[in-house]
Design a protein that fits this description.
The complex is a heterodimer of chains A (about 350) and B (about 260).
Chain A: H1 3-8, H2 10-36, H3 59-88, H4 92-117, H5 122-145, H6 148-152, H7 166-189, H8 213-242, H9 247-272, H10 277-304, H11 335-340
Helix pairs in contact in A: 2-3, 2-5, 2-10, 3-4, 4-5, 5-7, 5-10, 7-8, 7-10, 8-9, 9-10
Chain B: H1 2-21, E1 51-60, H2 75-80, E2 93-94, E3 97-98, E4 102-105, E5 121-125, E6 130-131, E7 134-138, E8 143-147, E9 153-157, E10 165-169, E11 175-178, E12 184-190, E13 198-204, E14 209-211, E15 217-222, E16 225-233, E17 237-245, E18 250-252, E19 255-258
Parallel strand pairs in B: 1-18, 1-19, 5-8, 7-13
Antiparallel strand pairs in B: 1-15, 2-3, 4-14, 4-16, 5-6, 8-11, 9-10, 9-12, 12-13, 16-17
The chains are: A mainly alpha (about 350), B mainly beta (about 260).
Chain lengths: ~350, ~260
C-alpha cells in the first residue's frame, strides 16, 4: 500500500472509521444478545472455545462464540484504523485518539476473557459493558474528526445565550446518557432487570419500597431515563428553535429525540415481556446509538461555537463582539457557513 | 553469605529427612479429618441410626402439564429427544406425590462426625438432559460429571458458598470430577449451551438427607433425637416440621406443597 494511496484515501479513512463505528454498534448488539440469552458462560474457556478456534455453533455457543468472532473482526478493523490514521493523519491529537481506540479494544478483549474465566464477576462484566460504550464513542469521534465536513471546517456560530450554552447543554446530555448506560449495565449485571416487575408504576406506586439493592438499582435506571429524556427534549427543543437551519446540529438532535422514544418503548417492553431477548437487546443497542448521536452533536456544538479542542488553534469565536440585547441567542453566520448550509 | 547457604542447605536436608521418615502407611499425608472418606475412629456408625422417618410429599391442586422443552437450538438434542427428556422436570408428580424434593435434617446431632462416602455421585448428560434432576451428596464427596452426548456441554455449578465451577465437555465420554467442600443447599447446576438443562444438588455435612422419589415418598434413617426436617423444592419452596424419634421408632411425616407457590 503506497503512501500516495493512503494520503489520497483520506475520505477512505473516514469511510473506514464510519464502517468500524457501524460494526462496533453491531458488536454491542451481539454483546447484548449474549447477556439477554444468558450465554456468557456457555464457552467456559478463553481465548480458545472448547480448545478450538471454531466450535460447533449450537445453543448458547452461537451467541458467545459469535460475539467473540464479531469482536475479533472489530479488533482487526481497529488495528487497521489505528495504523491508517497514524500513517496519514496530520493532526497529532487525532492520531493519539486512534491509539486510545486501539488500547481500548485490546483492554476490552482482555476484560471479555476475564469475564469468562472468573465466571461473570459484576465488577469486570460492568467494566466490560462500560468500556464497550467508551470504545464506541472513540470510533464515532474518529469517524467525525476524519470527515470532510469537520476537516474543512464547520460553520462558526456565536452563542450569546444568557443561560447555559449549547455546547455545555449537549455535553451534559451526553454525560447523562453515559451515566444512564452505566446504570443500565449495573442493572443487567446484577440481574435487577425485573426487580420492579410492573411498568409504568413500580409495585403499583410511583416510589417503590426499597426492600433490596436490586430495586434501588432498577429504580435509579428509571429515574435516569426520566432525566435523560428531559435533557434530550431540552436539547432538541433548543436546537429546533434556534438551529433548525443547521443540519449538522438539527439532524443528530432530531435522531436523538426520535430514538429516545423508541428507547423508552423498548425499556417498557423489556419489563412487560419479562426480559424477552429481542426488546432487551435492542434496548442496549439503541442506548449506544443514542450515546453516539449525542456525542456527535456535542462535538459539533463545541466546534461550531469555536470551542473545538485543537491545541494551538485560534478560537473562531468572536467573543469580543457585544452581545445583542433582547435576544437570548444570536449566531453570526459567516460566508463559509452559508456555503456549508 | 556462607552461613545463609549452610542454613538453607541444612533446612532442605531436615525437610527431606522428615518427609522420608514420617508417616508410615499414610506416606506423609496429613491425618484424615473428621468426617473424611477414610472414616475411622470418632465417626458416626450409621447402623446406630435405627429410627425411621418416612412419608409422602403431597402435591395439592391441579397438576400442571409438563412444559415441553424446545431443543431446536442444537440439532443433536432435537434428534435425540425422548418423551421423558423433552419435558421439564420442574414439577414432577406421580400418584399425587411430588418428586425431586430434597428432604433433610436441618442440624445433625451436635458432637457427631460423619464419614464421607468414597464412591462418587454421578450426574450424566444424556439426550441433553441431566440424570438425575435432583440429588444430594456430602461435603467433599466426589461428584463425577459425565457427557454421554455427541454434542458439547458446559457444566456450570452455580455455587455461592462453594467455589463456582464451569467446565467444558466437548467430546462424548468425557468425565470430570467436581469437589464441593462446604455445606450448601441448594446448588444449581446448569448447562449454558442448552439453557433448558438444569439440575440441583444439596451438599450436606451429615448423611441425613434424601430426595423424594416415585409417589413423592421418602425415607430417612436417624439416630434418636429431636430434629427439624426440611423439605425443599426448586419451584415450590421450603417447608419444615419438628420430629422426635427414639431407637427403632417409625414415624410418618408428610409434607404438602400447593400448586402456584413459589420458591423463596
Amino acid at each position: 500500500m503506497s503512501r500516495h494511496f493512503l494520503e489520497g484515501g483520506s475520505i477512505g479513512l473516514h469511510r473506514f472509521a464510519l464502517f468500524t463505528s457501524f460494526c462496533t454498534a453491531f458488536l454491542i448488539f451481539v454483546g447484548g444478545l449474549v447477556t439477554s440469552t444468558e450465554s456468557g458462560l456457555s464457552v467456559p474457556d478463553w481465548p480458545l472455545s472448547y480448545g478450538m478456534f471454531f466450535p460447533p455453533m449450537v445453543g448458547g455457543i452461537f451467541y458467545e462464540h459469535g460475539h467473540r468472532m464479531v469482536a475479533t473482526f472489530v479488533g482487526l478493523l481497529t488495528v487497521i484504523l489505528t495504523v491508517w490514521t497514524c500513517m496519514t493523519e496530520k493532526r497529532a491529537w487525532v492520531r493519539w485518539l486512534s491509539v486510545a481506540a486501539f488500547i481500548a479494544v485490546v483492554t476490552q478483549g482482555i476484560l471479555g476473557g476475564l469475564t469468562v474465566i472468573y465466571l461473570l464477576p459484576t465488577a469486570i462484566s460492568m467494566t466490560h459493558a462500560c468500556l464497550a460504550q467508551t470504545f464506541f464513542c472513540l470510533v464515532v469521534s474518529l469517524a467525525l474528526f476524519t470527515s470532510p465536513g469537520w476537516k474543512n471546517g464547520l460553520p462558526s456560530v456565536t452563542d450569546n445565550s444568557a443561560g447555559i450554552g449549547l455546547p455545555a447543554l449537549c455535553g451534559l446530555t451526553t454525560a447523562a446518557i453515559y451515566l444512564q448506560l452505566i446504570l443500565g449495565a449495573l442493572m443487567r449485571h446484577t440481574d435487577s432487570g425485573l426487580a420492579i416487575p410492573d411498568f409504568p408504576l413500580a409495585f403499583g406506586r410511583i416510589i417503590p419500597p426499597f426492600n433490596s439493592p436490586n430495586i434501588a438499582i432498577h429504580f435509579a435506571h428509571r429515574l435516569g431515563a426520566t432525566i435523560v429524556t428531559g435533557a434530550i427534549i431540552w436539547t432538541f427543543s433548543r436546537i429546533a428553535r434556534e438551529f433548525r437551519n443547521y443540519r449538522g446540529l438539527f439532524r443528530p438532535a432530531f435522531a436523538m429525540f426520535s430514538l429516545v422514544f423508541v428507547q423508552l418503548t423498548l425499556g417498557a417492553l423489556t419489563v412487560l415481556t419479562a426480559k424477552s431477548v429481542i426488546p432487551t437487546t435492542a434496548h442496549v443497542a439503541t442506548g449506544a446509538i443514542i450515546l453516539g448521536t449525542s456525542l456527535v452533536l456535542t462535538l459539533r456544538a463545541f466546534a461550531m461555537s469555536g470551542r473545538e479542542w485543537k491545541p494551538g488553534a485560534k478560537r473562531e469565536r468572536d467573543s469580543a463582539k457585544p452581545k445583542p440585547k433582547g435576544a437570548a441567542i444570536r449566531y453570526m453566520i459567516t460566508a463559509r457557513e452559508r456555503a456549508w448550509r | 553469605m556462607p552461613k545463609r547457604l549452610v542454613f538453607v542447605c541444612s533446612s532442605i536436608l531436615v525437610l527431606a529427612l522428615a518427609a522420608a521418615c514420617g508417616g508410615g502407611d499414610t506416606s506423609g499425608l496429613p491425618p484424615a479429618p473428621a468426617g473424611s472418606a477414610a472414616g475411622g475412629a470418632g465417626t458416626f456408625d450409621m447402623s446406630k441410626a435405627t429410627a425411621t422417618v418416612s412419608g409422602k410429599i403431597a402435591f395439592e391442586g391441579a397438576v400442571p402439564a409438563p412444559a415441553k422443552i424446545q431443543m431446536s437450538a442444537d440439532p443433536f438434542c432435537a434428534q435425540s429427544a425422548t418423551p421423558e427428556t423433552s419435558v421439564s422436570e420442574e414439577i414432577k408428580v406421580s400418584d399425587g406425590g411430588l418428586e425431586n424434593v430434597i428432604v433433610y435434617v436441618k442440624a445433625a446431632p451436635a458432637g457427631l462426625t460423619f464419614a464421607t462416602p468414597a464412591e462418587p455421585k454421578v450426574i450424566n448428560q444424556k439426550g441433553c438432559h441431566y440424570t438425575p434432576h435432583v440429588f444430594t451428596m456430602m461435603v467433599n464427596q466426589p461428584l463425577e460429571v459425565q457427557n454421554s452426548d455427541m454434542t458439547l456441554h458446559n457444566i456450570h455449578v452455580w455455587a455461592v458458598t462453594n467455589t463456582p465451577v464451569n467446565i467444558g465437555q466437548a467430546v462424548q465420554g468425557m468425565k470430570n470430577n467436581v469437589k464441593l467442600d462446604k455445606e450448601e443447599i441448594p446448588v444449581p447446576i446448569r448447562c449454558d449451551v442448552h439453557r433448558w438443562m438444569n439440575s440441583f444438588t444439596g451438599v450436606f455435612s451429615h448423611p441425613f438427607h434424601t430426595v423424594s422419589g416415585g409417589g413423592g415418598s421418602y425415607e430417612l434413617k436417624l439416630p434418636p433425637g429431636t430434629y427439624e426436617i426440611v423439605a425443599w423444592h426448586e419451584k415450590l419452596g421450603m417447608k419444615s416440621q419438628m420430629v422426635v424419634v427414639a431407637d427403632n421408632d417409625k414415624k410418618d411425616l408428610g409434607f404438602s406443597f400447593a400448586a402456584g407457590a413459589t420458591a423463596d
